[in-house]
Amino acid sequence: MADSIIKRCAGIGLRMTDQRKVIAMVLDQSDDHPDAEELFARATIHDPKISLATVYRTVKTFEERGILEKVEFGDGRARYEAAGRAHHDHLIDENSGEVIEFYDPDIEALQEKIAAKLGYRLTGHRMELIGVKLTSD
Amino acid sequence: MADSIIKRCAGIGLRMTDQRKVIAMVLDQSDDHPDAEELFARATIHDPKISLATVYRTVKTFEERGILEKVEFGDGRARYEAAGRAHHDHLIDENSGEVIEFYDPDIEALQEKIAAKLGYRLTGHRMELIGVKLTSD
DNA sequence: ATAAGTGCAAAGCATTTGCTTTGAA
DNA sequence: TTCAAAGCAAATGCTTTGCACTTAT
User: Fold this and answer.
1) CA B62, CA B70: separation in Å to the nearest integer?
2) Which of A88, A133, B82, B91 is the most buried if burial means most Cβ atoms within 10 Å?
3) Quick check: B87 contacting A, CB < 8 Å?
4) pLDDT tens-digit profile of B47-56?
């Protein structure tokens, strides 16, 4: 498994304030896709004085330094997940909002192929599948 | 080719005000993906008195009635395109912002398959490829 | 010491809404 | 005539920023 976010911050020489440590820790402990408000709520548990502006500034810094990736699921809020993990896409449960991560090499290959056919070299993509749970009954 | 947006509005019994006619016409004449502000700018040419709020209300109405589809390219603004055309996805030129529409049946099939494998029935998806133009030199 | 980071409140955008007036049916 | 739609401005929700203060290095 990859290094913790705290370690990665130190590794690139980021100044580690108490607030950044708290936010990094919260991110390390999150396996979902929290938005800024949610990160703020979780961080507040460890540091009741932290401000929402700091959360916003910190995730922006982390994103710029390649520590986080911003993902947007079309609800108007930005969400964050640790970057540098294996690449994956998202499937969103239409009813619960639950987000499932998956990776499919065929999709990746196909996307390259489509881009090439259109005369492009692929530099990125975003893909979200929306679905409803198959009931077994 | 599909009916004009104006016809489709009439077809579902929408009250056709002058403003809606103008916005529908602007949409019919657009082959790109304008956002609300851009639609407002184009509509203003035909009706200098139209208000931005009306543009927002109208695209929302059109979307709810299945006449438009909202697409978001991650720049914080919603964009619109005529719905009910053949399904397609988007490739965005990283440098110019140009949007190319494409349809690939293999992608569609693969998405269904992935969703099924995860225990879901696919109800929708969004996919944008980001790329840079292949230079021929 | 000093440049970078924080907190707070104010500002910014895209979008929505309350309310009064206008107009399509 | 009557109810839906328009116009305007104020409100909203997410995110950013200016400024004075604090802190990691």
Assistant:
1) 10
2) B91
3) no
4) 999 999 999 9
